[in-house]
Amino acid sequence: MISSTAAGGIALVELGMALTPGPNMMYLVSRSVSQGRVAGLVSLVGTAMGFVAYMIMANVGLAVVFVAVPWLYIGFKAAGAAYLAFLAWQALRPGGHGLFEQRNLQRDSHGKLLRMGLVTNLLNPKVAVLYLALIPQFIDPARGHTTAQGFALGAVQIAVGLTVNALIVLAAGSIAGLLKSRPSWAKWQRLATGTLLGAVAIVLAREVPARARA
Length: 214
Description:
Layout: H1 4-19, H2 23-35, H3 37-59, H4 62-68, H5 70-92, H6 110-122, H7 125-134, H8 146-181, H9 183-207
């Protein structure tokens, strides 16, 4: 139904996005470092639910809603760019927090971790752009069943995203311990994270005026 080129293309796109710091990574790492790997993996299940929700909505008409109400899509991207810029500032400002820095956070129940993971992903501007602007470019109408292609490509994206994020969750505690013992490394990690977040915010901000296409 989908070509190997399309599957490989969306896998590479998702790999790049998953490795770029964003709301999902910030949330998953913070939970893994503060509450342990199990909490991080439970949170990851919540983000997976968010991916599935986006995949369903994108394939049953979410893009049509954004086309009919263009200011909604533009506003969502603008808010997302502003949020990423805020995260970048939090990392780059004097006394800011690094991605893997240990912090004392409230210990939440598994149910709350699931809900927070879901909400974090639903409000993640990178995911919205992925499903509304990038995945449709890999759908080939000549192959037919465009909705089924959308679901198949979404499944590839989810598989890659969950694999990368699961590895990050499992490694977060060890990385946090390593950076704690090497303050200079922690400083460079914080600067790199803030710079990448700022770069993504700028790229998304440039795309804000673009309207959704059905």
